[in-house]
Every structure is written in structure tokens, then in C-alpha cells.
Amino acid sequence: MADPLQLRKLRSNVDAWNQWRQRNPDVHVDLRGADLSNADLRLANLRNADLREASMIMANLTGADLHGSDLRNANLVGARMIGVDISGTDLRGADIRTAEDLTPEQLMETRFDAATVLPEPMTDLTKLSE
């Protein structure tokens, strides 16, 4: 279950969130199961965050830092992901079928499996992940 204080802080102001993250680099970010659908998370520092089973449908993640985050079974349908850092991210079981602006190169820097729902042009990548 997502930490309600962290979720409220992130949803209310990404700049304040990023400042808080900078001042508290060792705090575990727990956003498991959070509803971040349609959220404006541009440039958000979500590095190493626990976002398992989060709903990020249509979220704007442009330029966000998701490096090392756990996005297992998350729903990123329609999420805008221009310039997002997903290196080291765990996408096993995530639904990214219509996430915008992901590249095969970005995906190859993540961990995903046959349960990950990839965009149609990238479905053959699952063979490379195993």
C-alpha cells in the first residue's frame, strides 16, 4: 500500500517533491498500488521508487527519473515517456502497450518478461529478455 503522505506530496507539487527527495535521499519511496492516472509527473524524481501495481494510465512522465524503480505489474497505458530514464527498472508484468515515445534501446536497459505487455512493434523483444 502506498505511503499516503508521499503520494499526497508527489501529486500536489513535483518541484517540492524533488526538493524533498534531494533532502531525504535515503527515504524509501513506497507508491505501491498508487493511482497516478493522468498525473503530471514531468521531471519527477522517482528513482528507486516502489511503484509495483501502480496505475499510471495517461500520466505525463516526460523527463522523469525512474532509474532502478520497481514497476512490476504497473499499468502505464498511454503514459507519455519522452526522455524518461528507465534504466535498471523492473517492468516484469507491466502494461506499457501504448506508452508513448519508448524506444527499444530504453527497454533493453530494463528488466521485463513475457508477461510484460509491450508496444506492438516491440513484442519480439521478449525473446531477447529471457
- Helix and strand succession? HHHH
Helical residues, percent: 10-25%
> What proportion strand?
under 5%
CATH homologous superfamily grouping? E3 ubiquitin-protein ligase SopA
Tell me the name of the CATH class: Mainly Beta
When the domains are counted, the total is: 1
For the record, give the distance between the C-alpha atoms at the N and C termini, rounded to a whole number: 30 Å
Low-pLDDT segments, ≥5 res? none
Shape, principal axes of CA atoms? globular
**What is the architecture at the second tier of CATH?**
3 Solenoid
Instruction: Describe the main β-sheet briefly.
Output: none
Q: How would you classify the helix and strand content by structural class? A: mainly alpha
* Strand runs, count: 0
And the CATH topology?
A: Pectate Lyase C-like
In short:
The protein has one domain (1-130): E3 ubiquitin-protein ligase SopA (Pectate Lyase C-like).
